[in-house]
Design the sequence.
């Protein structure tokens, strides 16, 4: 009886997992608390990156001077094995966490995009690879703020 | 052809597909005043973007209102060959969504 119940429970668990997993994989997450946070350290804590270490295997390309804070081109890249996700944060934006990029399948851990910066600020790339967090920082001088 | 998105997928050396996407979206921060009325324009921004390669997720983006207006996204996928399907889908904070697909060329 016990064995049957265990088997039934196991089957049930597998069925539930089979139903839920594809949905979770297709629906991209949006980490609301982390995106809503107005404090850099709290944003870092909410993505699990209280402690990060520098690495020469990650590349964070930003302009030194952004004349228009509404369009700041950035490139992020990791050569660390098992890179799972990369985050871009801007310390002096109203909410520091700007974007996250999660890689799966054959995606190379590289993205180029454009972000807004409210004022001159430290920008930070956080890379989670093999369960550990790494970071790189850049100071970007902004001539005209881009959040208004 | 969507009027809300443009994408180009190019096969680079070997098996790497280069994907460049341009999405036409205001990405309103909620901090900008409408010059005509003086009222703040409500927040309106893309929150998630998912890219798949032949149906399998390869990139999942979480975006804030700090991604620039008319977002540009450039990434690369290894293990691609000509004719493979790349699909990009996004959804914004109002629940508006759009999908576009392109073949690796």
Sequence:
């Amino acid at each position: 009886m016990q064995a049957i119940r265990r088997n039934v429970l196991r089957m049930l668990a597998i069925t539930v997992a089979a139903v839920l997993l594809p949905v979770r994989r297709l629906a991209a997450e949006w980490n609301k608390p982390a995106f809503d946070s107005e404090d850099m350290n709290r944003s870092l804590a909410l993505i699990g990156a209280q402690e990060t270490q520098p690495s020469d295997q990650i590349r964070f390309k930003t302009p030194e001077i952004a004349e228009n804070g509404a369009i700041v081109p950035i490139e992020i890249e990791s050569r660390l094995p098992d890179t799972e996700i990369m985050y871009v944060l801007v310390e002096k934006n109203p909410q520091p966490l700007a974007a996250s990029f999660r890689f799966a399948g054959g995606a190379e851990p590289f993205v180029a995009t454009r972000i807004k910066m409210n004022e001159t600020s430290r920008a930070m790339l956080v890379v989670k690879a093999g369960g550990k967090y790494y970071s790189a920082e850049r100071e970007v001088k902004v001539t005209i703020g881009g959040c208004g | 052809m969507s009027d809300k998105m443009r994408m180009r997928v190019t096969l680079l050396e070997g098996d790497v597909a280069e994907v460049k996407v341009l999405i036409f979206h205001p990405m309103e921060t909620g901090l900008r005043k409408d010059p005509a009325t003086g009222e703040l324009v409500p927040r309106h921004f893309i929150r998630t973007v998912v890219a798949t390669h032949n149906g399998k997720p390869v990139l999942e983006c979480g975006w804030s209102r700090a991604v620039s207006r008319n977002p540009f996204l450039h990434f690369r996928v290894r293990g691609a060959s000509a004719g493979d399907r790349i699909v990009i889908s996004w959804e914004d904070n109002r629940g508006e969504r759009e999908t576009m697909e392109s073949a690796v060329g």
User: Anything to note?
Assistant: Chain A has one domain: 30-144. Chain A touches chain B through 38 residues (CB under 8 Å).
